[in-house]
Amino acid sequence: MGKVISIEPTPNPHAKKFMLDSPVWTGSARSFEKTHGETADPLARALFEIDSITSIFYVQEFVTVNKQAEVAWDTVERTIISTIEANVDAVAAGADGELQIEDVVPPAGNPLLDKINAILDEKVRPALAGDGGGLNILGLEGLTLKIHYQGACGSCPSSTTGTMTAIQNLLKKEVDPGIQVVSA
């Protein structure tokens, strides 16, 4: 049974990263938003039973939980820990392949998109994961890259301003000066 061994703050004051002593999930990152309705994922479903939780993101040894702004962490943190510990083992057993918007991957074979993904994998996604978040590419139309932030990044004000600008500048420099990055 996985145990929460530490809680790390993120740049987003409404998200915290709960570190576990063993992997939660070793596949691609899983991301759930309460607005998408019911989920079959056992961990997300259990965490969403806590009224103030708005989104969940997990991969490897961490679970990032976002809460409503008006709720203080000290009122929900213990409940989140016990809920994670009680349900984390059900994740691997209950992996049902449920598709979330964040799991959608654009078709491979586009050399420009492949290059962008490689740059994001090397220079952007590790930093976002360090802060309890991530991003997926939803599509590339011409030189407009549509991304979706996950975890702590999803509701963080700096994601839609500073981080997105930094990603766009990186891609303009390393891929094509005409690239525009938009958040969906």
What's the SSE blueprint?
Blueprint: E1 4-9, E2 15-20, E3 25-33, H1 42-48, E4 53-60, E5 62-67, H2 73-87, H3 89-93, H4 111-130, E6 133-141, E7 144-151, H5 157-174, E8 180-183
Parallel strand pairs: 7-8
Antiparallel strand pairs: 1-2, 2-5, 3-4, 4-5, 6-7
Helix pairs in contact: 1-2
Task: Give an overview of the whole structure.
The protein is α+β, with helices and mostly antiparallel strands and 184 residues long. The protein has helices spanning 42-48, 73-87, 89-93, 111-130, 157-174; strands at 4-9, 15-20, 25-33, 53-60, 62-67, 133-141, 144-151, 180-183. The protein contains five helices and eight strands. The strands form two sheets. It has a five-stranded antiparallel β-sheet, covered by helices on one side. Strands 6-7-8 form a three-stranded mixed β-sheet. Helix 5 links the parallel strand 7 and strand 8 (180-183). Helix 1 packs antiparallel against helix 2. The radius of gyration is 17 Å and the shape is elongated.
**What does the radius of gyration come to?**
17 Å
N-to-C series of helices and strands:
EEEHEEHHHEEHE
* Chain-averaged pLDDT: 85
Tally of contiguous helical segments: 5
Give the amount of beta strand, in percent: 25-35%
Main sheet overview: 5 strands, antiparallel
CATH superfamily of the largest domain, called what? Answer: Scaffold protein Nfu/NifU, N-terminal domain
Question: What strand line-up does the widest sheet have?
Answer: 1-2-5-4-3
The CATH topology of the largest domain is: Ribosomal Protein S8, Chain: A, domain 1
- Tell me what the CATH architecture of the largest domain is: 2-Layer Sandwich
| Percentage of residues assigned to helices | 25-40%
Termini gap = 36 Å
Please state the structural category.
alpha+beta
Low-confidence stretches: 96-104
The figure for the number of domains is 2
CATH C-level category of the largest domain: Alpha Beta
Approximate shape: elongated
User: What's the total count of β strands?
Assistant: 8
